[in-house]
């Protein structure tokens, strides 16, 4: 599943109004014909969810993970024969642990996600669960079947995560652009403020002044980065990007390739993992996705899409988002979005760079978070002058 990132730290109660949902209280809207406004409080999932289990899953080893998954399945799918269950442990994630369980038909499997150690410091799980319900009702995500003390059980989306080679191929990139447009059309009226810079600031507040591991501290010092200098960089960038006055939409905020699922038979794309779903500057989702073309395990920013590719991608996205033909999307509109997206690519590097520095201190998963964080920060500074210097020609 690739990087399954950390999440929102705020737990304040809010109310969200959404188009595209057919369940729940509704009122007509003249602004968007054919859509429905639906009012969902942030804890709406608690009233809709059929199963809240008071049990915890031990994910310290595969056997314990399977045993815990079996207990969850006994509640969610009691008709499945326990001695005939089959399992698949998904090993790509570096925050949470994930296991699939099925009986007879692998495509009917349920996924059981166990939260990573210490992630309660970073993730508002109520928001995540609400996102599951919002996106499922909007036709953009699987059903959430149950929650337990340290995880979730939800439906499986048939397909495979896209690779760095696939993401630039037709029709995959076109499907991604159209699916993101669909995602962004979920109209959130009381959406609040963009999460981008508050989250980055939160990550830095959780970053230790000094790593508990002396070797990690030496590596950070060798990189030349300090917590204080990076915090100042965040404020400089926030000032520049917020002044662009970009639109705010309900965003995925974590569209790395492992969270993009391609169904080759259906020729469709779905997005998974909604820990970070929430209001954000619209260009951020696109910029973040483009940055992820570089990969995670072997990061190569030579894979970052060039201008010609971005123009094609953005034209497809804007046509889907505005319900126009591609021919009706103005060239100057594509150019404006190209400038916006590349500027926000810088914020993506600061976002995941700061996230990785926090993970380097707290996570027990075998991944070089510090090295990854330094790579992201290096790319931010390497591209900073170029991207901030971009201007719309007209």
From TrEMBL:
Domain of life: Eukaryota
Region: Disordered, residue numbers: 1-26
Enzyme class: transferase
Family: Belongs to the choline/ethanolamine kinase family.
Keyword Magnesium belongs to the record: no
Protein name according to UniProt: ethanolamine kinase
GO CC terms, sorted: cytoplasm
Compositional bias ranges of the Polar residues kind: 1-11
Keywords from the UniProt entry: Lipid biosynthesis, Lipid metabolism, Phospholipid biosynthesis, Phospholipid metabolism
Pathway(s) the chain acts in: Phospholipid metabolism; phosphatidylethanolamine biosynthesis; phosphatidylethanolamine from ethanolamine: step 1/3
Biological process (GO), any one: phosphatidylethanolamine biosynthetic process
EC number assigned by the record: 2.7.1.82
Pfam families: Choline_kinase (PF01633)
GO molecular function: ethanolamine kinase activity
């Amino acid at each position: 599943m690739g990087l399954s990132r950390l999440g929102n730290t705020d737990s304040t109660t809010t109310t969200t109004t959404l188009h595209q949902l057919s369940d729940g209280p509704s009122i007509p809207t003249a602004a968007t014909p054919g859509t429905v406004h639906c009012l969902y409080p942030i804890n709406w999932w608690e009233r809709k969810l059929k199963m809240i289990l008071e049990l915890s899953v031990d994910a310290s080893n595969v056997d314990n993970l399977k045993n815990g998954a079996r207990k969850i399945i006994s509640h969610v799918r009691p008709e499945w024969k326990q001695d005939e269950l089959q399992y698949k442990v998904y090993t790509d994630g570096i925050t949470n642990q994930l296991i699939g369980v099925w009986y007879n038909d692998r495509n009917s499997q349920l996924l059981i996600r166990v939260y990573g150690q210490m992630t309660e410091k970073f993730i508002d799980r109520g928001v995540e669960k609400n996102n599951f319900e919002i996106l499922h009702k909007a036709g953009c995500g699987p059903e959430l079947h149950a929650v337990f003390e340290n995880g979730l059980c939800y439906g499986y989306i048939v397909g495979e995560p896209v690779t760095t080679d696939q993401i630039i191929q037709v029709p995959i990139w076109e499907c991604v652009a159209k699916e993101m447009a669909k995602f962004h059309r979920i109209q959130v009226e009381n959406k609040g403020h963009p999460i981008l810079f508050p989250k980055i600031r939160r990550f830095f507040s959780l970053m230790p002044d000094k790593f508990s591991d002396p070797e990690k501290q030496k590596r950070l010092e060798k990189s030349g980065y300090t917590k204080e200098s990076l915090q100042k960089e965040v404020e400089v960038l926030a000032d520049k990007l917020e002044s662009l006055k970009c639109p705010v939409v309900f965003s995925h905020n974590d569209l790395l390739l492992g969270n993009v699922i391609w169904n080759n038979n259906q020729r469709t794309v779905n997005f998974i993992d909604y820990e970070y779903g929430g209001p954000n500057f619209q260009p951020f989702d696109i910029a973040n996705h483009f940055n992820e073309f570089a990969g995670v395990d072997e990061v190569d920013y030579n894979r970052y899409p060039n201008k010609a590719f971005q123009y094609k991608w953005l034209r497809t996205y804007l046509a889907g988002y505005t319900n126009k033909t591609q021919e009706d999307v103005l060239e100057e509109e594509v150019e404006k979005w190209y400038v916006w997206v590349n500027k926000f690519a810088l914020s993506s590097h600061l976002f995941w760079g700061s996230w990785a520095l926090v993970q380097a201190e707290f996570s027990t998963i075998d991944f070089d978070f510090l090295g990854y964080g330094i790579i992201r920060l290096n790319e931010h500074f390497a591209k900073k002058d170029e991207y901030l210097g971009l201007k719309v020609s007209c």
